[in-house]
Design a protein that fits this description.
The structure holds two protein chains of two kinds.
Chain A: H1 3-22, H2 26-48, H3 51-68, H4 79-98, H5 130-137, H6 141-151, H7 157-164, H8 168-187
Helix pairs in contact in A: 1-2, 2-3, 2-4, 3-4, 5-8, 6-8, 7-8
Chain B: H1 7-19, H2 24-36, H3 38-51, H4 65-74, H5 88-110, E1 120-125, E2 131-138, E3 143-148, E4 158-165, E5 172-176, E6 182-186, H6 189-196, E7 200-207, E8 222-225, E9 227-228
Antiparallel strand pairs in B: 1-2, 1-9, 2-3, 3-6, 4-5, 4-7, 7-8
Helix pairs in contact in B: 1-3, 2-3
The chains are: A mainly alpha, B alpha+beta.
Chain lengths: 190, 229
């Protein structure tokens, strides 16, 4: 089966499950959790970097999905983008509260179960590349790295400046111009 | 202030809100604006849909069972809704089929039906001499096989990532290293090219899912020679 077909099938199933959640069908939430929790957990873990906090956030995310499933509109977007946004916004919110907390020593000898997929293989939850991949290809390495560090890692401008060793103003400028280029490429110049 | 009055500021703010770089009071103000404005919501959805592509490298991680139990308790859902509960008979059938497939795979492997002929090999070992991974490159078919031997304890929020170190070039990721068992993957043209000119491979400890930058984010913990066979 091609990745595009897999993605379309998954989208359709997720959409139908969200509709059933909106109608308070608990078995739909159970299935939705099976399908979406692993990738949302990966997303939360990457941003929050602490397993216990990511587990707590994942609970918050599914409670929120259950309570707001009726607000999802398939005509306006893909279900996974909607759910991932709920997860990412929750994680960023938690980061704000955790910033003053001491950095804990990472737990040892505990290994997350992971699918053994290479990064190049298509993930069914992710949209097909197409135009966006071409637009991302137009960005400079610096711009793309900064966008990935922010979106996937949940890093702030200051974090990225420290991580990459570049001045804060430069990082802000790369991000601003990167986003501007993406918008122009995706929608055409305004 | 309405989005119609200031369309030029809505899109940049929406983009940085979705990206996560809009922080502090500005983020909270924008979130409130978004909640009450359909055009602002529309711009956020545009960026949510498109920027999601940046997360393609994320690999699913199974959350522990207690997370589901917590959700069920918080929402007062009926007990008995267990995402992964399967009947014993079904479990045995699955186990039997896994054993059958694993047995066949092992048989094929040991009969020498590997993906072509080994063209290069690297042995990654601890200072004690204990081998941790065996890396095998099958140049004719462009496959990479990694066998995990004895992995030392490591932080649960980190992954080991393997890199080709081409002479005079930047490191090229060869993917994550397995904690147990073995993995096989098809190398991209860029990875094959890098390996063809790499006298060494390296291992770094990276955030879960691998380096978010495409380059090592930490100092390599192992650098070993890649030997042609």
């Amino acid at each position: 089966m091609s990745p595009a077909v897999q993605t379309a099938d998954l989208d359709q199933e997720l959409q139908s499950l969200l509709e059933r959640c909106a109608a308070s069908d608990a078995s739909a939430l159970q299935r939705l959790y099976q399908l979406a929790a692993p990738i949302l957990f990966a997303c939360l873990l990457r941003i929050l970097r602490r397993r216990a906090l990511a587990e707590e956030a994942l609970q918050d995310v599914f409670v929120s999905i259950w309570q707001s499933a009726g607000q999802f509109r398939a005509t306006r977007g893909r279900p996974m983008a909607w759910m991932m946004s709920i997860a990412r916004y929750r994680a960023i919110d938690l980061l704000r509260h955790e910033r003053s907390a001491p950095v804990l020593v990472p737990e040892l000898a505990e290994r997350a179960e992971m699918a053994e997929e290479s990064r190049e293989e298509a993930a069914p939850w992710s949209p097909p590349g197409g135009l966006l991949e071409r637009c991302l290809g137009l960005l400079t390495d610096h711009q793309r790295n900064c966008l990935e560090l922010a979106f996937v890692g949940g890093n702030s401008h200051e974090d990225i400046s420290r991580l990459t060793g570049n001045p804060l103003g430069t990082v802000k400028s790369w991000i601003r111009r990167g986003l501007q280029s993406l918008r122009q490429c995706l929608e055409g110049p305004t | 202030m309405t989005p119609q009055e200031h369309p030029e500021i809505v899109d940049p703010l929406a983009a940085e809100y979705v990206l996560g770089t809009l922080r502090g009071p500005a983020r909270r103000r924008f979130a409130a604006w978004r909640a009450s404005s359909a055009p602002v919501q529309e711009r956020c959805r545009f960026w949510e849909e498109n920027l999601m592509h940046l997360a393609r490298g994320l690999r699913p991680i199974e959350p522990p069972e207690q997370v589901w139990h917590g959700i069920r308790a918080r929402l007062n859902l009926p007990a008995g809704l267990e995402p992964r509960r399967r009947s014993t008979g079904r479990l045995l059938a699955i186990a039997a089929s896994i054993l059958l497939v694993a047995g066949l795979a092992a048989l094929l492997y040991w009969r020498g039906l590997q993906p072509g002929r080994i063209s290069a090999v690297a042995s990654i070992a601890a200072p004690s001499g204990q081998q941790i991974w065996q890396v095998e490159v099958y140049g004719t078919t462009g496959r990479l096989v990694v066998l995990a031997r004895r992995l030392p304890a490591h932080p649960s929020d980190r992954d080991y990532e393997l890199w080709a170190l081409p002479a005079g070039g930047k490191p090229v990721s060869l993917g994550l290293l397995p904690a147990t068992g073995s993995t096989q993957r098809t190398l991209t043209a860029a990875q094959q090219q890098a390996l063809a000119h790499a006298p060494q491979v390296a291992v770094t400890l990276e955030p879960l899912g691998g380096s978010p930058t495409g380059q090592p984010t930490t100092t390599p913990i192992y650098i070993v020679p890649l030997q042609s066979v």
